Amino acid sequence: MRDNKDKALSFAIVCIFVVWTVKIYWGNWPVDLSALYFAAYFFDAGAYELVYAPDGQAFWRQAHLEWRELAHSQGYYSDLIPAYIYPPLWTALLGPVARAVDFVSFANAFFVLFIGSILGMIGLAYAIAGRIAASLGKLGPPIWVFCLSGAFVAGFTSYGALSFQLGQPQIIVSFLMMLSLHLLIAGRDLSAGGVLALAAAIKLMPTMLVIVFVFERRWRALFWFLGIGGALGLLSIFLCGWPLHQALLVRIDYLGNHVSVSRLSTGFETLAYHLENLWHGFVFWDISGPSKEPKSAFVSLFGRAVLFFGLVGVWWTTREIGQSIRIWLRFTLVLALVNATSPLAWLHYMLLPAMLALVAYGLIVPQIPGIVLFAMAVLTSLPVYLFFAFSPIAGFGEVYLHFSLLVVTCITLLQLGRNQRE
């Protein structure tokens, strides 16, 4: 009877979440997803020079004229059009679809995938937490707890709502990364490596998570990742040609040599850039709009040092923890560290670490860490985000807030994991 009540409550929560998100986001123009649509459209049209921005730029208000004309023809008149930043393979695969439908229909189809990915992540959090709880000799919480918390994370936090509003493919990538973690904990190394390779073929950042395979000495997962990833890379070159891949490399080089200055950034580099300016007497907090600023040697060295010593610290502090908890912790902490030191450390990248934090329900959580995690959820809620957006310290104040919350959450999860005994 109890199990039926849990399932009924879970179903009700999921239905409310789906109806709510459909009401808000269905039929919108998610600006980040439009870059994928435009790039695929012009690839299929044979205008390969229009796939990537010239010189690797981000072009928010400097988009190709042909991109803007296509947007205008479909009723979008804003100049806010981001550049395509993903591997060229997806322009070839999605090109026929982009040419067959308008962008809103394209976005609605992706919205369905986004909803499925969110529900998939909730289910994976429940499964991973259950496995960890079993290793501790306890029962995990009922699934409705994960449905309620996952719906809050995805729909009512700054990073969750932003992911839907922008139409971020990162939602799908996050699901694939979390699936890879689940498969790794379950001992299905080949599948774990293959799924992570697919995620890295969509966005390059998941490549860094092979560090977890190395930490765990899961060589089959690593080799399968390299094999599947190499095959997808060759397929991309075969379908798209080498020049487009050169254009992607130019863009990566451009991003690596610049700092992303935005209210939506959560990274070390943005903070280092601000601290460097404060040191030189340039006191400012407002960020009027996203920009790319040349990266100084200090900022570059700072980011690399944090990444290196952070990875060493993750390996060292987790080496004596039981296997299931250790893999989950290492995956979560490496992910957070890689995101925070990336040139593109955007706020919506916090969605997956937050979903992974739900796994803590499978642990024995003392009162104080539980309060800390709850406070982190409250401080990233939409009301708090909207309050800061219109406050005098909007801009870098938001960057410091979100970065601090990410750090505190990771430290709390690490301390929780180290206190468990499988």
Tell me what the structure shows.
The chain has 422 residues and is an all-alpha fold. It has 19 helices and two strands. It has helices at residues 2-25, 31-44, 65-73, 89-100, 103-135, 143-156, 158-166, 170-185, 189-202, 210-215, 219-240, 242-256, 268-279, 297-318, 323-341, 351-357, 367-379, 382-389, 396-418, and strands at 258-261, 291-294. α13 (268-279) packs across α14, α13 packs across α19 and α17 runs antiparallel to α19 (396-418).
3D shape: globular
Strand order of the largest sheet: 1-2
Distance between the termini: 30 Å
On the 0-100 scale, what is the average pLDDT? 89
Measured as a percent range, the helix fraction is 55-70%
Spans of 5+ residues with little confidence (pLDDT < 50)? none
Summarize, please:
The protein is mostly helical and 422 residues long.
List keywords for this structure.
422 residues, two-stranded antiparallel ribbon, mainly alpha
Topology:
Layout: H1 2-25, H2 31-44, H3 65-73, H4 89-100, H5 103-135, H6 143-156, H7 158-166, H8 170-185, H9 189-202, H10 210-215, H11 219-240, H12 242-256, E1 258-261, H13 268-279, E2 291-294, H14 297-318, H15 323-341, H16 351-357, H17 367-379, H18 382-389, H19 396-418
Antiparallel strand pairs: 1-2
